[in-house]
Amino acid sequence: MDENLTVERSRVPLTKEDFVSDQMVKWCPGCGGHAILSSVANVFPKIGYKKENFCVVSGIGCSSRFPYYVNTYGFHGIHGRANAIATGVKIANPHLSVWIATGDGDSMAIGGNHFIHIIRRNVDLNILLFNNQIYGLTKGQYSPTTPMGSITKTSPQGTIEHPFNPGELVLGAQGTFFARVVDNNIKMMTDVMFEAARHDGTSVIEILENCVIFADKTHELITSKDLRDDHQLHLKNGEPMLFGKNKEKGIRLATAGLEIVKIGENGITENDILVHDQYSQDPGIHLMLAKMQPPAFPIALGVIRSAMFPTYDDMVEEQILNAKKSATIKSVDDLLNSGDTWEIK
Amino acid sequence: MTKKKNNVVEKDEVVVKFVGDSGDGMQLTGTLFSDAAAILGNDIATFPDYPAEIRAPHNTIAGVSGFQVHLGKIKIHTPGDLCDVLVAMNPASLKSNLKWAKPGANIIVDADVFEDKANEKAGYKSNPLTDGSLDNYNLIAAPITSMTKGALTELNVDPKTADKSKNMFALGIINFLFNRSLEQTFKFFEVKFKKKPVFINVNKTVLQAGYNYAETLEAIKTTFNVSAAKMEKGTYRNITGNLAVAWGLLAASERSGRPIFLGSYPITPATEILMELAKHKSLGAKVFQAEDEIAGICSAIGASFTGSLAVTTTSGPGLSLKSEAIGLAVITELPLVIVNVQRGGPSTGLPTKSEQSDLMQALFGRNGEAPVIVIAASTSVNCFYYAYEAAKLSMEHMTPVILLTEGCLGFGSELFKIPKVKDLPAINPPIAEANDKNFKPYRRNDKTLVRQWALPGTEGLRHRIGGLEKENIVGNVCTDPMNHQIMTDLRAEKVEKIADFIPNQELFGEKEGDLLVVGWGSTHGAIFSAVDELQKQGKKISQTHFNYIMPFPKNTDKIFKGFKKIIVCELNSGQLVNYLRMKFPQYQFTQYNKVQGLPFVVSELKEKFNQILKEK
């Protein structure tokens, strides 16, 4: 397994309890946040860094109460700015494992600018994007990911805005890691978080989260028991993209894009099915996968993209190291006395 | 040609102003002249004045760029009111600057470009060089364009290069006028154009040609000599305020052992600080050019949380964008230095002009009760010391500090006696120790009310802070009414207590008198010069100039007490004066204000002070 050498590892094995804070979790019963919290508490000891080396940063919204509920260093910021604050944390101290808890309002609307730029820079940290397609903390206004036509408190006649697909936004901003999970699959969420931690660069995990109060069953088309087999494609690197109750359906790359085919029909075999390559540098197929939406297609879950590119924080350190090697100015006294100076006796 | 003999007049001080189109190289010409003067031992102060446009339409008033330098054998406090020598490279620059020339001043122009069309474009109805309108000045109408071309014929350079080196011809004339050797400037060319030796030759040739031309010119009957000033012993350099801020912060980082992080976004007139710090990676400076002003300050807050000397630099509009985040630094009680190089406002306002109109915003421009330290630099040189002080107070007292400077300080330059970093005051941030059983995020030092700085990565100090109100000492989210009162009071008291750690307010002049002149920021030099002159006339007038505004020095009231009248002079509509009225209601403050994007001139201040002194 690759090790991220910049963060110091714990010498003693850690458990879930090491990361449980003493604060009362104040999310509504049934909120997807509980499952995310549980996954994080599962994965942090597994990642194996020292407890002190985790830092959780958030913005504003239901999602952003997250830092109070994890026993790490935590910073609860202001609306939309988690990505900017976390950028400063990581650049200033690259020896921290930085996690951002943010939502579809925080990162897609008020903090959209910081979201695309952190991704473009490829700062080595992990973004948990709680996407419940609604503003929960302000009680039910539509968000930039609310499906068009939705009736909400601020769209009594239905929204007339085209929603963002976070995956498209991430890949459009040259994202190096994008994964998608649903909040009722803790196993997959934990695995994906682990992969995000291993990835060097900005890892975005879109978590399709249910808001029981203001957008209940908003992801029903994906998560309901009847539909999930046909509407979820679980991606695994190196494996064919099969889905359906008996894995009888698959994704094939046709000239016009992706298409659904059935194994055994029209001479289709497993060999015709697209094999997932999450490490591909070219984001072409990753973008097609990220864009698939039910009911026409299953939604792609798991790690969609995990490509290696240099990280911003590594390059910062490298530039400083190089500058120090060749510098004639090694102290502020050197600096003050550099250039044109003269003495008066 | 035979060399003619000139009268040489000894001067204590002179003011020279270079003006031309914004592409004419006036900033460089002025800088070269003032640097050479400084190296020869003159005290100097400079004031660059240029438009927001990079290359505004040719030969228009809008496109005039200027650089003023005041040099002397005496201590120089301002870039000067009116100039003794005006170099005007085109009609538009003459038209807009003649009002700043003293009667009888030497006016040097490029006679080649005063053609009918250009004169008309500049707003002249006739040629000012020949219509007698300059009769009260000593006009030196030199055919600069054609002489420059002529000087370069043998070097075979392209017309564009020839045109661009005209400014060096003018500089040659000026050097002759001040009996200056060209050596220093030659040296500069050799360094600057090391990689393009052809330009060394071009510039040297043109500079020398200008000098030689002046030497043979009948129009120059008198030259000036400004001897070296009596300066304190030491090593000196020339420094602009923006450079001084950057270096002061680097010094504070080195002295405190806290790595410096700058999160910033380019904005006139503060960008030079960002560019300067970006150069110094060898000193460990981490400089992050953010996607906007908000990301600039928020990244700095993140860096501060991890233990960096965190800085964000900006100008007025940027400070507006940062307001919410400043509140976050207030409530999390993290150190943060916010440098605001003020410019004319509101909104985009006058980006390249100076103003003092962000004081109220610095003091109060946030939601909630959000006190921060506010300090203001008053000279280009003390930008170094106040940047250092801002960093020191911020880290030692765990609070944001707003450092106000101004465009004219940032761009202006002065002689800087180079200090040694070890002689600067020590900086001791309250960093929490690993595994401290007593650590609580909001446990405070009894005397200073300062909480500890617990850095992520430290064993045994895991904690959470953020923008929600926190329970006193413990640091959990808390909405209890009495707790909010306590925390609000503590945050305010902590900042007020800083008065115990800053120097007393100084007074220039007698402790008692008829008039006390109060100012802050860049106006120090102009007010000082005016007060000094009136004191010499026997008037009972004194000056006190504020660098620490929130909190005020403890002896402020005592100073006010000694005077019959107090006048507050500011380059805004009355911001400090209204703050003083609020803080010291027992005194009656009068005010003198100017909001023109220009500094005070000494004469207008003297006139105002005299008028007040006469009033019963």
Question: How would you characterize this protein structure?
Answer:
The complex is a heterodimer of chains A (345) and B (616). In chain A, 29% of the residues lie in helices and 19% in strands. Chain A has 345 residues and is α/β, with parallel strands linked by helices. In chain A, strands 2-1-3-4-6-5-11-7 form an 8-stranded mixed β-sheet, sandwiched between helices. The N terminus of chain A is likely disordered. With 616 residues, chain B is of the alpha/beta class. Chain B has 3 domains: 219 residues, 3-Layer(aba) Sandwich (Pyruvate-ferredoxin Oxidoreductase, domain 3); 187 residues, Rossmann fold (3-Layer(aba) Sandwich); 102 residues, Rossmann fold. Chain B contains 20 helices and 22 strands. In chain B, strands 11-10-12-13-15-14-20 form a 7-stranded mixed β-sheet, with helices on both faces. Chain B has a 6-stranded mixed β-sheet with strand order 3-4-2-5-6-7, sandwiched between helices. A 4-stranded parallel β-sheet of chain B has the order 19-18-21-22, sandwiched between helices. The model of chain B has no long low-confidence stretch (mean pLDDT 95). At the A-B interface, β1, β2, α2, α4 and α10 of A face α1, β9, α9, α11 and α12 of B. β2 of chain A pairs parallel with β17 of chain B.
